[in-house]
């Protein structure tokens, strides 16, 4: 249990700046997910918290204590690595108990705690195996066991699920969440997988190119992406975008010459400016061609998902993905009408990529949702 | 697809192989056969190559009955184990330091490799000057106390000298292999270990040495073989101590050459050579056994 404070933290390698001044605060017991594309600096940030990477400037504190110059072993964090980093020459028990051995915990006590931990992560029967004899999921459990046996203040996860197959990933995700519920240590989880991020996070942080783009609960971020980047990065399939000019009246934009209503208050403030309009595939509507207020769209191809389908349409060279429910059929090559409901339209500035909005976007404030199993 | 050059005539490939075949014939097979010949026969007192006397194992009996021979064997063993231990230990420390990316490690990596490229006699010659008790760089210690260092007088000093020479030359070689071995250990293992609370020494003992074990074993066998029976040992001894003082550094490889070409006891030297060849075979056998069976993690 510990708070983590990150104050204006920067990282440069030579002349390349990786992190451009990151300010974050994690509450005690919170499950924080840092999400971003590869190379955005999220792993670097995590490794700086762990003490594996030097902090170029700025300050990281754990439980109010600045840890910039502390060795990793003195920070009270444990970490689960992407490739698990199990000691190949030790068996499962020795791997899990290594931290205790280094700490000089007596053998009997050590064995007791190894057994206890093995039970939590479900490895009781495999304690004598070497890592090479384990499956990917089992190795993952060993790595988790090794992290929890120390009863750390902070858990750090560096893309721990990305080496697992899809099914196992879902299962481990649930287990990590369950483990967090049980141990309730502050956890920082780095991933590039938005589904992991959405499902695990109390607090979600989206990073891009060394900047924090948005901080919030998963739902806040989904419903009110602060930047165009966040809009594209969260949600699957990705948000549709087109550039257009807000009509002088401020209540609509034109798509292929056909008016689509927008929020008149917001539009009124920005009348006449060219903006980037974003709308999620699940919020677009496909209607029979010729329906009023619909834009004629050629159906390119259809992706079946079972629970629904994704229809890819084309309007004057512009591609849109539309999620439709089961039972709605659209034929490839046919023409349909596309409608964009005003309440789901996001407007972003073309220059800055920032969301145009009535309400100021609230950063760095989140209500941790009550932990649900 | 198997790309293979096919020679139409038989003489062309033979011609290509000829230089190497001749070298092997003249410098390997011929001497080896001669050694066999010498080892089991005795040259008549007044010469006469065609009339050498077949004496069976008499030469070997004589060698084994000689106390000095056994002293030479034990000197060789002592030399081999100490020199190997020293060179591997130092190489390991250097390799660990370079692996930790301490300041200037790139530069040091470059320099540490050099000594191996220097021929043993050259190393011996250089060390002979550096460690000359009356005029070398080391001479200063003798101003503190006379004869603090005098390999020409004290057998133990001479032994230390050749051990240092050998270790110095082989540190570079060991260093290359150890550095390569250390670099193949995933960095995340060391990071995991440091997250688990271990310091640099603990990491070396718990993680790096066990994972480097195959490399260390390979180097151990190689160093032992080389220092026990290898040409480097001869070159170093010949240029520094010449087996002295009072045969205190008369290791096996050196003893054979000096018996044959200074003592002119060809038959005795040939018998010792065969023993040495047998030892090399034993060492090589061990080496192959263990190198073949190298433990593979993962």
Automatic annotation (TrEMBL), chain A:
The UniProt entry lists membrane topology as: Peripheral membrane protein
Q: Which Pfam families match?
A: ABC_tran, TOBE_2
Instruction: List the keywords (alphabetical).
Output: ATP-binding, Nucleotide-binding, Transport
Instruction: Say if the entry is tagged with keyword Translocase.
Output: no
Domain ABC transporter span(s) in chain numbering:
4-234
Q: Which GO terms describe its cellular component?
A: ATP-binding cassette (ABC) transporter complex, substrate-binding subunit-containing
**In the record, what terms sit under GO molecular function?**
ABC-type transporter activity; ATP binding; ATP hydrolysis activity
Q: Does the keyword Secreted apply?
A: no
Give compartment(s).
Cell inner membrane
Which GO biological process categories is it annotated with?
A: carbohydrate transport
Please give the PROSITE patterns that the UniProt record associates with this protein. ABC_TRANSPORTER_1 (PS00211), ABC_TRANSPORTER_2 (PS50893)
Chief site of localization = membrane
Which PANTHER family does this UniProt record tie to the protein? MALTODEXTRIN IMPORT ATP-BINDING PROTEIN MSMX (PTHR43875), OSMOPROTECTIVE COMPOUNDS UPTAKE ATP-BINDING PROTEIN GGTA (PTHR43875:SF1)
Q: Which family does it belong to?
A: Belongs to the ABC transporter superfamily.
Q: What is this protein called?
A: sn-glycerol 3-phosphate transport system ATP-binding protein
Q: Which organism is it from?
A: Phyllobacterium myrsinacearum
Taxonomic lineage of the native organism: Bacteria, Pseudomonadati, Pseudomonadota, Alphaproteobacteria, Hyphomicrobiales
UniProtKB/TrEMBL annotation, chain B:
Q: Which residues form the ABC transmembrane type-1 domain?
A: 73-287
Pfam families per the UniProt record, alphabetical: BPD_transp_1 (PF00528)
- What InterPro entries does the record point to? MetI-like, MetI-like_sf, UgpAE/MalFG_permease
User: Gene3D superfamilies of this UniProt entry?
Assistant: MetI-like
* Membrane spanning stretches: 12-32, 77-98, 110-131, 158-182, 203-222, 269-291
- What are the protein's UniProt keywords? Cell inner membrane, Cell membrane, Membrane, Transmembrane, Transmembrane helix, Transport
PROSITE patterns registered for this protein in UniProt: ABC_TM1 (PS50928)
Which Gene Ontology terms describe the biological processes this protein takes part in?
transmembrane transport
Summarizing the function annotation, the protein's role is: Part of the ABC transporter complex UgpBAEC involved in sn-glycerol-3-phosphate (G3P) import. Probably responsible for the translocation of the substrate across the membrane.
> What is the designated name of this protein?
sn-glycerol-3-phosphate transport system permease protein UgpA
Organism encoding this protein: Phyllobacterium myrsinacearum
